Recover the amino acids of this structure.
């Protein structure tokens, strides 16, 4: 890998690496935003289905219709699974610690190193990008894992709903 600066530390001979790191940083930030959005969708859909299930449970009780003995435990399990999915969605959106240049570092750029040669500046900025990319990737991998668990809970809850609906319709 060649040095990003020319022999004198002035203009870089190759800015491809800096451009690549900048695009990687943008991709990870975009990925984080998409994961946060999916976490929000998980919370919304699980919460809505939780409310529908609670309504189904109360309708059976309010109408005085006989409810098969298998329905209440299945409803409780489905409610629990939707609740867990919503919790996973909330945890996806939880703010995480990402390493970025702090204001002291930004002040140093303005006060001390603003006039460095382009190649040296590009190396410094790229190193900062790399640290941010590393922490974003770690956080994004954790968010993906939490989303998978949340979606798994939704699948389980949905599978539990099938027998509940069948039993409630069969009794009527």
């Amino acid at each position: 890998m060649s040095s990003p600066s020319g022999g004198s530390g002035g203009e870089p001979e190759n800015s491809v690496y800096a451009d690549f790191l900048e695009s990687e940083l943008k991709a990870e930030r975009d990925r984080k935003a998409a994961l946060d959005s999916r976490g929000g969708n998980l919370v919304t859909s699980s919460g809505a289905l939780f409310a529908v299930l609670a309504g189904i449970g109360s309708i059976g009780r309010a109408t005085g219709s006989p409810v098969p003995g298998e329905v209440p435990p299945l409803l409780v399990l489905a409610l629990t699974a939707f609740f867990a999915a919503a919790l996973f969605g909330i945890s996806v959106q939880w703010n995480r610690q990402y390493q970025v240049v702090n204001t002291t570092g930004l002040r140093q750029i303005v006060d001390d190193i603003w006039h460095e040669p382009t190649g040296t500046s590009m190396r410094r900025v790229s190193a900062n990008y790399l640290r941010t990319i590393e922490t974003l990737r770690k956080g994004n991998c954790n968010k993906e894992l939490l989303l998978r668990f949340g979606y798994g809970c939704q699948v389980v809850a949905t599978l539990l709903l099938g027998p509940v609906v069948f039993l409630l319709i069969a009794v009527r």
User: Anything to note?
Assistant: Helices lie at 16-63, 71-93, 103-113, 118-171. The chain has four helices and no strands.
